[in-house]
Amino acid sequence: MTNSKNPSRRTFLNTALGAAVAASIAPRVLRAEDKAKPPTTRPTIVGEDQHTYEVIDDWSKLPLSKQFGNTHGVCETADGRIFIHNASPTGDAVCEFDPDGKFIRSWGKQFAGGAHGMQLRKEGGDEFLYLAPTGMHKVFKTDLKGDLLLEIGYPKDAKNSAGQPCYADESKFVPTNIAFAPGDGGANGGGDFYVADGYGSNYIHQYSGKGEYIRTWGGVGSEPGQLKCPHGIWCDTRDSKNPMIVVADRANVRLQYFTLDGKYISMVTDELRHPCHFDQRGGELLIPDLKGRVTIFDKDNKLIVHLGDNPSEKLRANNGPAREQLVSGQFCSPHQAIWDRAGNIYVVEWIRYGRVTKLRHVA
User: Fold this and answer.
1) For 242-296, what is each residue's pLDDT tens digit?
2) What pLDDT does 1 receive?
3) Exposure string over 32-43, b if 16+ CB within 10 A, otherwise e
């Protein structure tokens, strides 16, 4: 018989063990100083030398009622706001954020299904967006609040090199992006723009600032001047005396250069996998590459650095990776990228639930 006032050694050990287990699973009460000091983690860094960046994942802070779809386009306004163009399942095709990623507003339900190319241009002191939603077979110009100002259908007058019509109807006109010639169409004159028919018939079309058709070049093929998925397009003004149109000839895995009136000049083939589009800053060219990295070329189109190069070939150009497969500092499907005024980079990816990453310039 055990004396309740003098417990046995076994009873004592069992009681002590139970108390220890209970203490281990009891919720921890945080002190005020603990709450003020969240756990610290080392930031993810990509790049090297003067092109070193801190990775800021999930930079954009969407309200719970809104969702991204494929994030395809990104632009910065003169006052630092960031616009994201995406195939939103909630109809929020154009989402506007402040520089810290705080949501401001959204619009563009009619553009959500085929949301794709988006470019911003300053014209006569105001800023406008040009949109190329692939499912609508048209190009649109809007103000920054989404009011429609110009709508351009397929170019009925366009003819190929054999003098034949490029299009029988609008179904083969599937524009993917837009570029702007020097001049803004305002007091400075100029204002021509170019449309890449990347998912349709592989042509480049030139228009006046008023949307009047001028000319066409390209057409499907792999010879110089021919194109296979001219996905992105840009007016390269790094040599201010010799502006040129550069095309991301994606399926041919090359960049092609043309004069402003469409004459072939040259091509670049090195250090590319699946080039999507462009941005430029100073003498450098930024190229989002769908196959898992973002590339920066120098003024001579020689490699400076690859950013976020994904070591997994299965995740490159992957539209549907599981969220747990995403790794900070490694891209899957970069679709468009820009530098902001401070030299930071924003990257949007062709991922079905959207992915927006900010690369903060640190050196």
Assistant:
1) 999 999 999 999 999 999 999 999 999 999 999 999 999 999 999 999 999 999 9
2) 44
3) eeeeeeeeeeee
Tokens of 81: 């706001």
Please work out, in degrees rounded to the nearest 5, the angle formed at the alpha carbon of residue 218 by the alpha carbons of 254 and 185: 95
Angle at 343 between CA 295 and CA 308, to 5 degrees: 30
Q: How far apart are CA 266 and CA 287, in angstroms?
A: 17
Q: Order of strands, edge to edge, in the sheet holding 203-207?
A: 177-180, 193-196, 203-207, 213-218
Domain boundary assignment for the chain = 44-361
Closest CA to 71 of 53, 95, 54, 55: 95
- Separation CA 328–CA 144 (nearest Å): 31
To which residue do tokens 């990509």 refer? 46
Instruction: Note whether 284 and 298 are within 8 A (CB).
Output: yes
* Predicted local distance difference test score (pLDDT) of residue 41: 76
Domain 44-361 fold: Neuraminidase (2.120.10)
Share of the chain above pLDDT 70, in %: 87
Contact between residue 132 and residue 139 where contact means Cβ atoms under 8 Å apart: yes
Q: Any bridge partners for residue 131, and if so which?
A: 118, 140
Burial tier of 358 (Cβ tally within 10 Å: 0-12, 13-18, 19+): buried
Rounded CA separation 86/260 (Å): 30
Token pair 């305002």 in the structure block, residue = 186
Q: DSSP for 37-83?
A: SPPP-PPPEEEETTEEEEEETT--B--TT----SEEEEEE-TTS-EE
